[in-house]
Amino acid sequence: MDSSSALSTRGLSKRFGSVTAVADLTLEISRGEIFGFLGPNGAGKTTSVKMIAGLAAPSGGTGTLLGLPLGDRRARRHLGYLPELFRYQPWLTAYEVLVLHARLAGCSGERKTLNALLERVGLIERRSARVDTFSKGMQQRLGLAVALIGDPQFVLLDEPTSALDPLGRQEVRELLRDLKARSTTVFLNSHLLSEVEQVCDRVAFVTRGRIVAQGTLEEIAGAQRGVRVSAQAGRSPIAQLLQRFGNVHPNGKSVLVEGAGPKSVPALVRALVDDGAEVFAVEPVAATLEQRFFELTGGGGTQ
Prior knowledge:
Helices cover 32% and strands 30% of the residues. The protein has helices at 45-53, 73-76, 94-105, 111-120, 136-147, 166-181, 193-199, 217-221, 238-241, 265-274, 289-297; strands at 5-16, 19-30, 34-38, 60-65, 68-69, 79-82, 154-158, 185-189, 202-207, 210-216, 224-232, 247-251, 254-258, 278-286.
């Protein structure tokens, strides 16, 4: 497994009868990268995750995980996976769940190792408590611990923070950064854009089974949206004066000139000053990841 790519797919697709859940999944993810996979409900994200994990056979296309074909058992030994919908035996304790999964994975089930995992996800105090006494958030923490058994090289997380409170989400972010520091690759399927913005190196947007954009956060969300102008009007209303520079959106004491770029700022300021306006501030405004999400996906999915 000496490939420089942790995950590589080309034209991966999945059909269920006449329904195409994933049409063309083409990705290249480097080792040690945290990659965010974003899209509306029904966009094909979970089906994509299952193909990557080897749990669903592709209808078309090819892919490799850690340099080996998708689904290859040698690669799956180095894969940690937290599915979106998971259930653990309610009569087992948290520690017993880890023992069971360590045995299933053929990994070390040493007490010290498993206790360290429970410590990492904040459950060491509840190691002897039964799963049926856990809240949904606590079960999600337990799922994260299971995904980290065996110190995997590639961790596949499907909505890992959906049931967690703000403190829990912060702890998961720290955990993801720790995995990155260990050169572990993380594939993060999430609809929580604020979480993705804080931890991911690159992201992909998927809708209706197709990737519509991928790249760094700066490449996708950092595009210039316009400039915000704060000024005291002179002879003419500010909004009226700035219409020729872009779409004008007044907001209280400021005006957003959408579409105006850095090169238009000198002329924009000159027009204000010549009209007798008093200019307080002119600042660039970048698109947010949320804005780009709705622009690229339309907010809709399929199956």
